[in-house]
């Protein structure tokens, strides 16, 4: 695969395979080993990896579209892939050039899959210093990717300081205990349960971005949140597109015209309220997609530019537009997830069709952080000219 179109085509092929039994797999709620293997076998996990190590050498603009396409077939797997891309890029966000080279060669060459135990709402993992090593201890209530990951990103605070330290460690080790307690109404196959970290040791040399035990900050370091917020936006958009695709197919094959309206039609395709409804939802989805693509191109340019060139102002400008895209996609997606039942008809509510899956998936993850704060960020920018300040959620 050498072009964006090649990667999108592959993502669509993967999505088509996932969509076949997405409803059944959601109900079974089993660890998605085969689904992640499909991502590896397709080559999608190395899309951002260096070409010299067998990666695709693609941009984030392409990665966002691939996430969206995969989520169109299965929202959970789209989320897993999106998080993988973010954590695979984590070294570039905060590490030194030497550390970046080591991490990118490792994960690209061996097609390793990333998970992450970085949940800002929990107390940070405690890090103690033991000679030339750092020792991580603590508990996180969410660790997306858990058992299907090969590598886990840890983050904690060095004891006696306020210094945050990121490190990438093997997922399969005695010191990492995944608790298999993720059983929510949506995004059920994301392996997002809690994790306990017991004496996981990392050499000081692997502490991301630290040189001689000192961190050298850049504005670029703060792109982790806008980057993943747009990951969210794209798999939300993919879920919404999947919902509309599925509803349209159902209506073509099964929905009957209403025979008691006084203007009776022969088929659902002639029924005015169905055409009006789908026209409204499709238009809103196209608008949300256009905004998401535009801001995806913007942040991709920033992410692939020299790290030292990023200014706080440029970072804030792209972050506020991501906030706008996210709120618009959430609102549109939830509306689609609800209104498709009005357009498909009563029989479509049978559990065998699984039309509720899309709403459950989007509703569950869109609670990650309050969308009202994203509206506030956009409002403060529009009215007051204020750019979002970097936080763990902004």
UniProtKB/TrEMBL annotation:
The keyword Glycoprotein does not apply. It comes from the Bacteria. Residues 7-99 form the Acyl-CoA dehydrogenase/oxidase N-terminal domain. GO terms for molecular function: 3-methylbutanoyl-CoA dehydrogenase activity; flavin adenine dinucleotide binding; monooxygenase activity. Pfam families: Acyl-CoA_dh_2, Acyl-CoA_dh_N. Gene3D superfamilies: Acyl-CoA dehydrogenase/oxidase, N-terminal domain (1.10.540.10), Butyryl-CoA Dehydrogenase, subunit A, domain 2 (2.40.110.10), Butyryl-CoA Dehydrogenase, subunit A, domain 3 (1.20.140.10). This is Monooxygenase.
């Amino acid at each position: 695969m050498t072009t964006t179109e090649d990667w999108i085509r592959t993502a669509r092929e993967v999505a088509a395979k996932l969509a076949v039994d997405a409803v059944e797999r959601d109900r079974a709620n089993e660890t998605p080993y085969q689904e992640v293997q499909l991502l590896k076998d397709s080559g999608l996990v190395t899309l951002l990896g260096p070409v010299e190590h067998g990666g695709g050498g693609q941009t984030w603009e392409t990665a966002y579209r691939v996430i969206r396409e995969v989520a169109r077939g299965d929202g959970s797997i789209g989320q897993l892939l999106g998080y993988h891309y973010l954590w695979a890029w984590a070294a570039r966000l905060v590490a030194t050039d030497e550390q970046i080279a080591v991490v990118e060669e490792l994960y690209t060459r061996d097609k390793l899959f990333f998970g992450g135990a970085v949940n800002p709402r929990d107390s940070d993992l405690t890090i103690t210093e033991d000679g030339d090593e750092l020792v991580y201890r603590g508990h996180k209530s969410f660790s997306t990717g858990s058992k299907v990951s090969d590598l886990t990103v840890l983050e904690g605070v060095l004891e006696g300081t306020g210094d945050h330290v990121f490190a990438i460690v093997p997922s399969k080790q005695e010191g990492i205990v995944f608790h298999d307690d993720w059983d929510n109404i949506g995004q059920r196959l994301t392996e997002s349960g809690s994790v306990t970290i017991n004496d996981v040791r990392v050499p000081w040399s692997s502490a991301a971005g630290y040189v001689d035990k000192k961190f050298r900050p850049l504005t670029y370091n703060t792109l982790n949140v806008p980057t993943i917020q747009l990951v969210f936006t794209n798999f939300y958009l993919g879920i919404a597109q999947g919902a509309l695709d599925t509803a349209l197919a159902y209506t073509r094959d099964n929905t009957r015209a209403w025979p008691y309206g006084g203007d009776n039609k022969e088929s659902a395709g002639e029924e005015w309220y169905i055409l009006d409804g789908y026209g409204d939802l499709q238009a809103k989805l196209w608008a949300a997609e256009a905004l998401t693509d535009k801001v995806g191109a913007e942040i991709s340019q920033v992410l692939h530019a020299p790290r030292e060139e990023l200014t706080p102002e440029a970072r804030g400008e792209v972050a506020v537009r991501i906030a706008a895209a996210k709120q618009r996609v959430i609102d549109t997606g939830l509306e689609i997830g609800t209104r498709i039942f009005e357009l498909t008809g009563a029989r479509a509510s049978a559990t065998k069709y699984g039309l509720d899956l899309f709403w459950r998936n989007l509703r569950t993850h869109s609670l990650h952080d309050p969308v009202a704060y994203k509206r506030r960020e956009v409002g403060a920018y529009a009215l007051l000219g204020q750019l979002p300040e970097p936080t763990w959620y902004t």
